[in-house]
Design brief:
74% of the residues lie in helices and 0% in strands. With 181 residues, the protein is mainly alpha-helical.
Length: 181
């Protein structure tokens, strides 16, 4: 059976519209527009580049995200910038880069930032180094007791991405069942 040309065009448009609804096809968000404006107003705003890099990573726009993260780090070599880059790389699946940036952040802060250990957990989970992930999970739970129970962990990670939640929850289960003293 053959279909009229109009019907074929309709189905092609329908399929392309469905593809536009996929997560990787998102081109902008209100948050991204705010960050674009901040950067347009101040091209030296490292925090805006860092935040935009993270948002772009979540939108699947990896090349743009990497460029913004590099720009943010060139403008500010502070622990929080490296940590944010680590989270962005983690969400892009660039786990070795995530570990590198989170290790730099922890070293620069002398392991005093509240996020040092649980950020490292994510990166080590991604690289498959469960020994280091579990060690850092224990340190994260010492620093922030909310990581020590499932209920408070759920509350603490409520706004994390699904991948971030999956990683931290998987490590928690191992830690609570087999690692926790």
């Amino acid at each position: 059976m053959t279909y009229p040309r109009f019907t074929c065009l309709f189905f092609a448009l329908l399929l392309s519209a469905s593809a536009a609804d996929q997560p990787g096809a998102v081109q902008t968000t209100p948050k991204l527009e705010v960050l674009n404006k901040q950067i347009a107003e101040n091209a030296e705003n490292a925090q805006a580049y860092s935040n935009r890099g993270y948002v772009l990573a979540l939108l699947g726009r990896k090349d743009e995200a990497r460029a913004d993260l590099k720009k943010a780090l060139s403008l500010s070599d502070k622990p929080n910038m490296h940590n944010r880059a680590g989270w962005a790389y983690f969400n892009m699946g660039d786990y070795a880069d995530a570990v590198r940036e989170c290790e730099i952040a922890a070293k620069l802060s002398d392991h005093q930032a509240h996020y040092d250990y649980y950020s490292l957990v994510l990166g080590y989970w991604g690289t498959g180094d469960m020994q280091k992930a579990l060690e850092n999970y224990g340190l994260a739970a010492e620093k922030d007791p909310r990581f020590g129970s499932y209920k408070t962990l759920m509350e603490r990670t409520l706004e994390w991405t699904p991948l971030e939640q999956r990683a931290i929850h998987e490590v928690y289960v191992l830690w609570s069942k087999a690692w926790k003293p």
